Amino acid sequence: KDGKRIPDCDVIVIGAGLTGMYQAYLLDKEGMSVLGVEAGEEVGGTWYWNRYPGCRLDTESYAYGYFALTGILPDWKWSENFAGQPEMRRYANAAADAMDIRRLFKFQTRVTAAHYLDGQDMWQVTLNGDELVTCRHLISATGPLSATRMPNIKGVETFEGESFHSSRWPTKADGTPDCMDFTGKRVGIIGTGATGVQIIPIAAETARELHVFQRTPNWCTPLGNSPLSDEQMALIRKRHTTILEYVKTTDTAFPYHRDRRKAVEVPKEERDAFFETLYDQPGYGIWLSGFRDLLTNAESNKFLADFVADKIRQRVKDPAVAEKLIPTDHPFGSKRVPMESNYYEAYNKDTVHLVDIRESPIQEVTPTGIRTADRSFDLDVIIYATGFDAVTGSLDRIDIRGKDGRKLKEVWADGPTTFLGLQARGFPNFFTLVGPHNGSSFCNVGVCGALQAEWVTRMLVYMEAKGLTYSEPTQEAEDKWTEAIYRDFSTTLMADVNAWWVKSVTKPDGTVQKRALVYVGGGAEYRKQCERVAYSGYKGFELA
Ligand code: NA7
C-alpha cells in the first residue's frame, strides 16, 4: 500500500552464542519470523570457539548460567564452581534443545554484509558473500571477544610446526580438541592475558619446554575453583530466583557488591586483613567486592597492588622472574584481572621460561621457531594468545552500511556513538547486543546479554503492536549517551590504560585518544536507564 517491500523475515539475529540464542528464542516465542545466522557449526559462541586447555569460566557457574536461573534448564547440574569449557559447551547445547532454537539458525554461515535499504525500513543481509535475505530488524549478538587478533609479526606463515590462535584451537575429526598434551614438545606462547594465564599452567604440566613471550604482565589472582556438591547444587536450585534478582542489582551482574568503605580511610592492619580474606576467596571478589575507591583513587589502588605484588614475590621462587611478572604500567583492576590456577607456580618449573619481549622484542617467526632481538628459540608449537579486536571488531569485519550507504566502521572510526549502546544514529532498526557502550561489555555477559535481549524483545513487540516499522535514536539522545560514556570513563583509573575495552584512536596530529568501548555506570544503573526509556514509550528513539 505504501510502496514498501515486505521483508523476507521480521528479524535476523547474528550469532548463536548465549545471547543470540536467547534473542532468537524470545522473538520466535512472540510469533515473529526469525532467521539466526551463525559462523560456527553449532551453538555456544565463545564456548564453541574457545576450546584451549584450561579454558573455563572466571564467573561462578551458577551466576553466569542464566538459562538455569530462569528455569529454561531447571535440572542443570554444575559440576564445578567455575565450569570448564566442555561443560559450558554442553550447557549451551542443552539450552538450545530446551529452547528448540536450532531450527531457526543457519550454521556455518557468515554475515558478510548488511545494507540498510533507504525508504524501505529494512535491511538487506548478505550471507557467505552471495545469498541475499531481507529483514525488518537486524540484531547483532556477535560477542565482544570473537574477532581474533593475530600479531603483526614477520614470518608468522613460515613456521613449519603447529601454530594457531588460542580461539581457533585445532580439533580432531570428531570435533574434540586436538593438541591438548604437549609431552615431548617445545612450546612457545605469546600473550599473558586471561587466556594465556589459563593455558600456561596446563601446558607447563606436559611440555618439554615452555617459553612464555610476555609483553605486559597482568595482575592475576587465584580462581580457587572447587567441585560443587549435590547439597550445594540443591541450594542453588532452590534459590535460583533470589540469585538472579541479586546479580541484577550488582554493578557488574557478578555476585559481588563493593565494600562501602574507601581504602584510604581504613587503617593499614585492617586493610591488609581484608585483602588477605579477599585473596583467599574464590573468584572476582578481590576485584569487585573490595574497597569502593579501588578504581577512582590511585593511592587506594596502590595498597591492593602492593599487596598482590608481594603475593607474586612469595609464590615465584626466582626473584628476578617474580619482578618481571609484576605489572608496573597499570593500576590493579584497570585491565581485566585474569583469574589463575597455579599460574605463578608454573614459573617455578625448570622447563618454564619467561621471555621478556619488551626487553628483547620478537624480530620474526622463522620456520623453526621465534627469533627475538638477542636469541632464537626452537619450537614445535606456537600458541598465539594475542586476544581480540574487542567489542566492535566483529562488527567491523562485516560491511555494515546504514542510511545513505554510510559505513558503520567509518562512522565509529573515532570511537562508537550510540544510544543505550543498542542503536546508532544513521543505522535504523539495527540493534547491537553485548556491543559498545552498553552494560554487557563490562558485565557478566551470561546475565547482561540476556537482559538486553529481553529489553529489545519488548521494544519490537511494542513496535509491532503499534504498527511501527522504523526505529532510530535521535541525535540528541545519542550525543547525550555517548558524551556521558566518555566523560564517566575518563574519571576512572582505567582511562589511560591499554586494555581491550579501550579503543586507541590516533589523531591526524599524531596524538592518541583513548575511547571507552564500555559502560562503567554499573549494570543496575544501565537497566534503570533502559527501563526509563521503555516506560516513556521509547523516548530518545524516532519511531515511525
Ligand atoms: P587479552 O586480554 O587482550 O590479552 C592478549 C595478550 O596478548 C596480552 O598479553 C597482549 O600483550 C598480548 N599481545 C597482543 N598482541 C601482541 C603482540 N603483537 N606481541 C606480543 N604480545 C601481544 O586477550 P585474552 O584472549 O587473553 O583475553 C581476552 C578476554 O577473553 C578476557 O579478558 C576474558 O574476558 C575472555 P599487551 O598487554 O597488549 O602488551
Question: Can you tell me about this structure?
Answer:
There is one protein chain. This protein has helices at residues 18-29, 46-49, 61-64, 66-69, 85-99, 194-206, 230-238, 240-249, 268-280, 285-288, 298-315, 319-325, 343-346, 393-396, 408-411, 445-466, 475-490, 523-535, and strands at residues 9-14, 34-37, 105-106, 111-117, 122-127, 131-140, 162-165, 186-190, 209-214, 221-222, 339-340, 352-356, 362-366, 369-372, 376-378, 381-384, 399-401, 430-432, 471-473, 502-506, 512-516, 541-543. With 544 residues, the protein is of the alpha/beta class. The strands form 6 sheets. Strands 1, 2, 3, 4, 5, 6, 17 and 18 form an 8-stranded mixed beta sheet that branches. A 5-stranded parallel beta sheet has the order 7-16-8-9-12, with helices on one face. A hairpin with a 2-residue loop joins β13 (362-366) and β14. The protein is globular, with a radius of gyration of 23 Å. The two termini are 16 Å apart. The relative contact order is 0.14. The model has no long low-confidence stretch (mean pLDDT 96). The structure holds ligand NA7. Residues 145, 151, 190-196, 215-216, 336, 357, 385-388, 500 line the site of ligand NA7. It comes from Paracoccus lichenicola.
